[in-house]
Amino acid sequence: MSNDPSIFRFTDGDTIDSLIHRNKEWSQRLSALRPALFPALANAQHPQILWIGCSDSRVPETTVLDLLPGEVFVHRNIANILPTGDLSSLSVIQYAVEVLQVKHIIVCGHYGCGGVMAALGNKRYGLIDHWLQNLRDIRVANKEELAAISDPVKRVERLVELNVVAGVNSIKRNESVIEAMEERGLEVHGFVYDVAHGTCGVLEVPADPNTDVYCYK
C-alpha cells in the first residue's frame, strides 16, 4: 500500500483493519492541522449547507466541495430523488432547515448516473423499480424533449438535469423551506457534478409552474 493518502484504493486484498489504520492516520493529520476541530465537533454541529445527492460512491459531497467534517448536512439516495411523501428526505429537510438553520440547500445530480440510465430504459430491476418510478414519471413528463435528443449520452445528461430541476422545485414547495426563504433568506440551488472532470456546475432552474398550488399562506 502506498503511503500517499491521495492514491489509496480499497481492493479485494485489503481488510477492514486497513480502514481503521487509515482513519487513525487521517484523524492525526487533521488534528495536527486543526487542533480545535474535533473537540468542537464533539459539542455540536453548525453546518451551513444541506446536500441532497446521489448514493454513488464517486460523488462524496465533503470531498467534492473541499470542506471539512461538520460543514455539510447530508441526505443521499439512489439518483438523488425527492419523492412526495418520503419521510426520510422530509425529516432531513425539516431538521436541517428548522433546527440546524442551514443557509443553503443543494440538490446535486451527476452525469453518468446509473439510476437515471435505468429510468430511461424499460428493463425491470425488481424492488428498485418502485423507487425509479419517480424518475420515470419525470421522463414521461418530458418525453418530447428527451425523444428529440439523438445522442444517448446527452439524453442521460438531460434527464439528470431535469431530475435536479424537479428536486429543487419539490424542496421549494416544502412549508419549512418556504418560511425560511421568506424569513431568513434560505437559498436552494441545483448542482450537476461531472464525474469525468471532478467539477460541479450550477444548473439554471426555471420558475416552477406549480408554485401557486403550493402556497401555504
Task: Give descriptors for this structure.
217 residues, alpha/beta, Beta-carbonic Anhydrase, Chain A, 2 domains, five-stranded mixed sheet
Fold and architecture overview:
This protein has 217 residues and is an alpha/beta fold. It has 2 domains: 34 residues; 161 residues, Beta-carbonic Anhydrase, Chain A (3-Layer(aba) Sandwich), CATH 3.40.1050.10. 46% of the residues lie in helices and 14% in strands. It contains 9 helices and 5 strands. Strands 2-1-3-4-5 form a 5-stranded mixed β-sheet. Helix 5 packs across helix 6. The radius of gyration is 19 Å and the shape is globular.
What is the mean pLDDT? 93
Count of helical stretches = 9
CATH class of the largest domain: Alpha Beta
Q: What count of domains describes the coordinates?
A: 2
The CATH topology of the largest domain is: Beta-carbonic Anhydrase, Chain A
Physical arrangement of strands within the biggest beta sheet: 2-1-3-4-5
Helical residues, percent: 40-55%
